[in-house]
Structures are given as structure tokens and as C-alpha cells.
Design a protein that fits this description.
This protein is an alpha/beta fold. Helix 6 packs parallel to helix 7.
């Protein structure tokens, strides 16, 4: 990335270039380099996220570009779905426009005497159904042949004499009798369904437009194909179109513009064939409708004009960012250290947050205690200054953040504390015990639920880590850490203690690059990072209204796939769900007043006792951490968050 940024700087120095126009998601590294330099970037994206690898590349492009142009809504939806799954961003950003590319008459060479029918030895009476593209899996040559077979079969069964005039032509290279990946299977299919003599593979032609003018119907049967030029050529040639829904931007376009077309259910060749046969005469009529739509809606000159507008808007947004950085509210409240540890310069951090905000989205919180999600959910970003002012003032009502500094307190908390600790990875016991020793100034009993057998050394470490007694209970590996906590809370903790802390040997092996380890240490460091910090944190419970204390987290989260499970748990406790679940103890480690969690006794005994495997998201266990603040507040206690400066994961 640094080398690419260096090259861009040199280009700027030599040419004075003031913006970047990119034409593919494969240019994502260029987009990110330009982004880091503050260079306005407009991107034309033509790819579905489903076949773009590595996963997340499209999201990176959307975040790095100041403006994005897609040719159709289906492609935009594909990109936004990936953005949601990879970055957790559910809000639709405002920097995306829809504009199909224009018709560009291109031919390898001009030959007015050439004829596709003559080359294939076909007469003017034959009915040509044409598909096109290199013979490979994505282009759906198999779906083309299936559709053609069903058209022939349906017309034959209805005694339509035109069935015998049908000829099926695939334009494009790649069909080879020695190709065992695709071609041999196509050949086997054609022979077995009896259409081999009607199918032609002439290879690539020098003038696709001229070939399509001789076609009666064009089938776009790709598995996924953004907005292929050959389909634009077909419209320009006034061919009727057959296409699968959700397979291409062309499917969106022909429906929206009322083109002469037939749409089939995705991948359902018989359904497409039935719809084609139903209006066959209309589709092959060449009545000028499709060519007129192409002329009006797919002008290449207009396409170029719209690209220029896109670049101008990218430049205008970048100019606006420079002004927003100077706003007093932004300079006072934005925390570069909290926002993102991976961005190297303060300029880049500010640039990242503001550039996403004016798109109407956010990746992480701009300062501890921020309610940036509420801002993105509820504002229409047209006045950028107002958006920044709202973002810098929005805080979560009733859930303040205390910055932990290990400062002296008026009174050390003296209530009875139960520390519930679930062990699955016994190799982490020494690490946790070192943190537990920071509670030495408090009256703490340790309740350990463990899946593996513990040896004498483990038990000794646990005994020596707290001031009070040790209670061990072995559990089967069911319900992760939640079921053991629930069971010990109900049976051993609720009747006898004032405060409960819940911790577990979190590794998150399904998260790459050591994120699980960093997350665990972040939670421990914020909830019991030092002896002085633990005194300060637990002193929050000297306020009898405090019911829950958990670590603030910069990551933006929501209910995920847990809506039904949230409602299931709340129903058992006689509660109703809230509008959103954005703020909760992420990672399920926390301190709580025992009486604030009394409603847990209403949950059925086996609710949390789930067998493995448990999904990454979407279970009562994931719902449990999300509803904890609600349980506490419904019990008339308050919720507080804590944060130790310069900690992040």
C-alpha cells in the first residue's frame, strides 16, 4: 500500500491530477491508497459480490470510494448485502447511484457481406435463439441448452409447427470436445435430450451486433452477469430478451423499462421456457420497442456525462471534508485513539470517520459513549455540518461511560461478591488468575464451572487468586458459558451475594488474526485491569441504583440474527422487546447487582442448555448478552459502561 501511495503522489506531482476514476472492484488497492491520501475517488462497479474474492473486497471498495456507480439495483443489493455481513453496516449509504453503461458499437472488423445464417447454413425461415459468452460455468451455457430444450419440447407437444424451425446458437469461444470442465457435459446433455442437431457453436464472431440482427430471440442465461454488453447489443438489434430473474442487471432493466422480454425464476429453465413460449410471437416481432429503449436509455454520451457528474460530486465531498475537520465540536470530541488503532495517521483516522459519516454510515464509534448508530439510523445526510454536530453530541441516554483511571475512591465497596468463572480452555487459567488477584481488596468467593477436569495445580491457582472460598462444579460442554452461569447464579449466588461478576475463557477460535485473544484481554483489562482500577470499578456499586457495569466497545453491533431468540427469552420473563439492541456487554463479561438480574429465575431451566455446535450468531446464548441491560433497567436499576483510555481490540 505504501508503494502504491508513493506512486500516486508522484503522479499528482507530475500531472496535477485531482481525482481518480476506477472501473472495477479489482482496483480496490488503488481506491484505498487514494483514500488514504485524501484524493477524490469515483468507482464504477460491475461485479456481483457473490463471486468476488476475497470476501469483503466489495465492502472495502464501497468504504474507500467517495462515489460509486452501479449499472443496476441487483448489483447494488449484492454489494450492500456483503457490506452488512462483513462490516455490520445495515444503513444504506447515500453515495451510490444507479446508471447502466451506454451502448458502444464495437466490432473487430467491418464486413457488410457477412451473415451468421449463411455461415451456419441456415435459411431465413429458421428461428434463431442465440446466447453468447465464453464457454465457462458462470456464463450458464448449460442453462441456455436446458431452456432451448424446454422451448422445443413445449412447442412440439402443442403441435406448433415452428418447433421444427428452431435453431440454437451460442456465440463465443471455448467449446471444445476435449474440454472436460464444461464442453463434454454440454455435449452429453444435447445428445441425451435430442437437440444436438439444432445446436451450433460457431465460436466468436467479428461483429456481434450484426449477428444479433439476424437473431429472433436472445437468451441471457448466465448464473450471474452484471450488465453484459452483449445484452445491450441485443436490445440495440431489437431482439426479444429471455433472462432469469436476479441473475443480471439486465433483468432489472428490462422489467423497469417495459422491454420486450420474458423473465424466468432464477435457474428454472422450464419456467423461463414456458414464459417465452407463452408470448413467443411478441418476443420475436422486432417491433422497434427494444431498439428504442436502447437509444433512449443507453446513450453512451449520457453515460459519460453521468460519470463526469460522479467525479465532480466526489471532489465536492472531499472539499467538504476539509471544512468539517475544522468544526469545533469535532476537534473537541472525536477520539482518534478510540476510533481505530489500525489507521496510522491522525489525518487518515479523521478522514475515515468523516468520509463514512457523510455517506450516512459509520464503521466504529467516534468516542467512548457515542450513539453514532442512532445518528445514522435517523438522519438524512444532506447538511454535512449538521450531521457532524449530531454525531459529536449523540450519547446513549441512561448508559453513561466512566473513564477508569485508577483514581482513589471515597469508599471501597464492601458487599459480598461472587465471581462466576467458566473454564473451557484450561490453558487460560493462569492469565485469568492474575486478573482475579486485582480484587484482593474485596470480599470475593470464586464459583468455577469447568468442562475439562482440573488438576491440582489449576485448583491451587484458583484458590490463591481470590480472598474468599472456591466452589467447583463440572458441566458438560453445553450452553457455552451462559448455561453454567445461569445454573450457578440461580442455585448458589442469588440467595447469598450482592454483586456477581461473570468471566469465561474466551478465545473465539472462529475469528482470525488473534482477534479473540485481543478481545479477551481488552475485556479483562477494562473490567479488572489493575488493583486500583478494580477498586474504582466496583465502587460504582456504592450507588444502590447501579445494576450493571460492562466495558464500552467501539464496535457497532445490533441484534444480528437473534430477534426470535430475544423475543423468546423476554416472553418467559413477561417483557416486550425494544426497538434495537445496540449497547450490551459484548463478549458476555460484566459486573452486575444480583437483585438486578432476579428475573433470570423466570427462565425455564433448559433454555440455555444447548448442545454443540452452536452457530456463530443466532441463538438464545447470543440473545442473552443483548437483553442484559434491558433486564437491569426493567428491574429499576441503572446501567453504566466503563472504559480505560488507550485500550482497544
Amino acid at each position: 500500500m505504501q508503494a502504491l501511495e508513493f506512486c500516486i503522489k508522484k503522479i499528482i506531482d507530475y500531472t496535477g491530477v485531482n481525482a481518480v476514476l476506477l472501473n472495477s472492484v479489482e482496483s480496490v488497492e488503488m481506491a484505498e491508497a487514494a483514500f488514504n491520501l485524501g484524493l477524490p475517488t469515483a468507482s464504477l462497479l460491475h461485479e456481483f459480490a457473490e463471486y468476488t474474492r476475497p470476501i469483503g473486497k466489495v465492502s472495502r471498495m464501497l468504504l474507500a470510494s467517495d462515489m460509486v456507480m452501479y449499472p443496476a439495483k441487483s448489483l447494488m443489493s449484492s454489494g450492500l448485502n456483503e457490506l452488512s455481513s462483513s462490516s455490520g453496516i445495515r444503513t444504506i449509504p447515500n453515495h451510490i447511484v444507479i446508471q447502466p453503461q451506454g451502448y458502444l458499437d464495437f466490432k473487430i472488423r467491418y464486413d457488410s457481406t457477412w451473415s451468421l445464417r449463411q455461415q451456419l447454413g441456415l435459411s431465413n425461415e429458421d428461428l434463431l435463439i442465440v446466447g453468447a459468452g465464453h464457454v465457462q460455468p458462470r456464463k450458464g451455457v448449460d442453462w441456455f441448452l436446458e431452456t432451448c430444450h424446454y422451448i422445443f419440447e413445449i412447442m412440439s407437444q402443442s403441435n406448433d409447427v415452428r418447433a421444427n424451425k428452431l435453431q440454437f446458437v451460442w456465440l463465443g469461444n471455448g467449446y471444445n470436445e476435449n474440454d472436460t470442465l464444461v464442453s463434454v457435459w454440454l455435449d452429453a446433455y444435447m445428445h441425451r435430450v435430442g437437440i444436438k442437431d439444432r445446436v451450433h457453436f460457431p465460436g466468436a464472431v467479428h461483429d456481434v451486433g450484426l449477428a444479433l440482427r439476424e437473431a429472433d430471440l436472445f437468451l441471457l442465461t448466465s448464473k450471474l452477469d452484471p450488465f453484459p454488453n452483449v445484452a445491450i447489443d441485443a436490445l440495440h438489434s431489437d431482439c426479444g430478451i429471455g433472462v432469469f430473474a436476479e441473475s443480471s442487471g439486465i433483468a432489472d432493466f428490462v422489467v423497469e423499462k417495459y422491454a420486450r422480454a420474458a423473465i424466468g425464476k432464477y435457474g428454472d429453465a422450464r419456467n423461463l421456457a414456458e414464459n417465452i413460449v407463452e408470448k413467443f410471437d411478441y418476443l420475436i416481432s422486432k417491433n422497434g420497442v427494444n431498439s428504442a429503449i436502447c437509444s433512449k436509455e443507453l446513450s453512451f454520451d449520457n453515460y459519460v456525462i453521468n460519470i463526469k457528474v460522479l467525479i465532480d460530486e466526489s471532489i465536492a465531498r472531499r472539499d467538504e471534508l476539509k471544512k468539517l475537520e475544522e468544526l469545533d465540536c469535532f476537534r473537541k470530541n472525536f477520539s482518534a485513539n478510540f476510533y481505530n488503532k489500525d489507521i496510522v495517521s491522525e489525518f487518515a483516522v479523521k478522514n475515515h470517520f468523516l468520509s463514512q459519516l457523510i455517506k450516512g454510515i459509520a464503521v466504529t464509534k467516534p468516542f467512548p459513549g457515542s450513539d453514532i448508530q442512532a445518528v445514522c439510523d435517523n438522519i438524512n445526510v444532506c447538511d454535512f455540518q449538521s450531521a457532524v454536530e449530531m454525531a459529536m453530541s449523540a450519547k446513549v441516554e441512561g448508559m453513561p461511560v466512566t473513564i477508569i483511571k485508577g483514581a482513589p475512591v471515597e469508599k471501597i465497596y464492601s458487599g459480598r461478591i461472587a465471581l462466576q468463572f467458566h473454564i473451557y480452555f484450561e490453558d487460560l487459567i493462569p492469565e485469568f488468575c492474575e486478573y482475579f488477584k486485582t480484587l484482593t481488596d474485596h470480599n470475593v468467593d470464586l464459583f468455577v464451572s469447568h468442562v475439562p477436569e482440573l488438576n491440582d495445580a489449576h485448583i491451587k491457582q484458583l484458590e490463591e487468586s481470590v480472598s474468599g472460598s472456591l466452589h467447583l462444579q463440572r458441566f458438560d460442554n453445553q450452553g457455552r458459558d451462559v448455561y453454567p452461569f445461569y445454573r450457578q447464579f440461580i442455585d448458589n449466588i442469588e440467595p447469598y451475594y450482592d454483586i456477581v461478576g461473570h468471566f469465561h475463557t474466551k478465545k473465539s477460535n472462529d475469528v482470525a488474526n488473534g482477534v479473540g485473544d485481543r478481545w479477551r484481554r481488552y475485556l479483562l483489562g477494562n473490567l479488572m485491569g489493575s488493583r486500583a482500577a478494580s477498586i474504582e470499578i466496583l465502587s460504582l456499586f456504592n450507588d444502590f441504583e447501579t445494576g450493571l457495569v460492562f466495558a464500552e466497545d467501539r464496535h457497532l453491533v445490533d441484534e444480528g440474527k437473534n430477534s426470535a431468540y430475544i423475543e423468546l427469552l423476554l416472553k418467559q420473563m413477561g417483557l416486550c422487546r425494544r426497538d434495537n439492541y445496540h449497547h450490551f456487554p459484548l463478549g458476555t463479561m460484566f459486573w452486575a447487582r444480583v437483585s438486578a438480574l432476579s428475573s433470570l429465575a423466570k427462565i425455564k431451566d433448559d433454555t440455555f442448555n444447548l448442545p454443540e455446535p452452536i452457530p456463530y450468531d443466532g441463538s438464545v446464548l447470543h440473545a442473552f448478552e443483548r437483553i442484559l441491560p434491558q433486564l437491569v433497567e426493567e428491574s429499576n436499576y441503572s446501567v453504566k459502561r466503563i472504559y480505560t483510555e488507550n485500550t482497544i481490540w
